[in-house]
Inverse folding.
């Protein structure tokens, strides 16, 4: 790894008078997967929102390849190479699968690159290829999640922000989605993963951060966090992480 490509330094953020982030510091190295775990309301999704520019931080710095992001609008952040697949998917239901994917590339002008990325994404998610002309709102939940990730990938990101990709999915689809995340990362994309299934997230990631009440309370290698008694008791059901592919969908 060549050093931090994304770094948050003492970042604070609020919704009105309610402070959601109280001095978050974390980093993602080029080419790794980091997982953000914690209870509902811990600040995980808010962290993604400040990275992507959807929420302006009230303090601290966000750096991408050494460049400050916290002063930029969200569309400029996308152009720099950070895209997000949001919680709840937020696809355009009345548009086709192909139109949703095309929208993901709105900031690009490299037609050959767009065509190549589309083909790669359809290889990654074969179900989307079968449904290119179908209205996105008629897809199953798992297919909509594939579409949300595919749309984010059409922006050719260097960093992909994933917010609760397994939410509401069956175990078999969770395994498929997480395998796709591995392949995306293997292609060189850095991934910042927010995931309710802490065990699956930490088995996928190289490093993890545990958030509580808008602060980072633990940071370590993911394997170490899986074995940490405090993390086990709070987020993993109190037991050791199981091995094997089936464990990735356990939770």
């Amino acid at each position: 790894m060549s050093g931090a490509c994304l770094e948050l330094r003492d970042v604070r953020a609020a919704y009105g008078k309610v402070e959601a982030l109280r001095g978050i510091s974390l980093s993602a190295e080029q080419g790794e997967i980091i997982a953000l775990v914690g209870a509902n309301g811990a600040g995980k999704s808010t962290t993604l929102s400040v990275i992507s520019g959807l929420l302006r931080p009230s303090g601290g710095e966000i750096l991408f390849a050494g460049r400050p992001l916290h002063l930029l609008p969200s569309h400029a952040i996308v152009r720099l190479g950070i895209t997000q697949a949001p919680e709840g998917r937020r696809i355009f239901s009345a548009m086709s699968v192909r139109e949703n994917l095309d929208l993901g590339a709105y900031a690009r002008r490299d037609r050959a690159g767009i065509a190549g990325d589309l083909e790669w994404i359809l290889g990654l998610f074969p179900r989307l290829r079968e449904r290119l002309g179908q209205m996105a709102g008629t897809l199953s939940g798992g297919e909509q999640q594939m579409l949300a990730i595919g749309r984010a990938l059409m922006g050719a990101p260097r960093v992909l922000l994933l917010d609760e990709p397994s939410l509401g999915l069956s175990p078999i689809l969770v395994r498929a989605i997480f395998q796709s995340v591995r392949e995306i990362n293997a292609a060189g994309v850095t991934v910042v993963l927010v995931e309710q299934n802490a065990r699956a997230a930490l088995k996928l990631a190289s490093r993890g951060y545990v958030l509580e009440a808008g602060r980072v309370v633990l940071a370590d290698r993911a394997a170490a966090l899986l074995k940490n008694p405090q993390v086990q008791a709070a987020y993993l059901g109190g037991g050791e992480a199981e091995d094997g592919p089936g464990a990735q969908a356990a939770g």
Q: What stands out?
A: The longest strand covers residues 4-15.
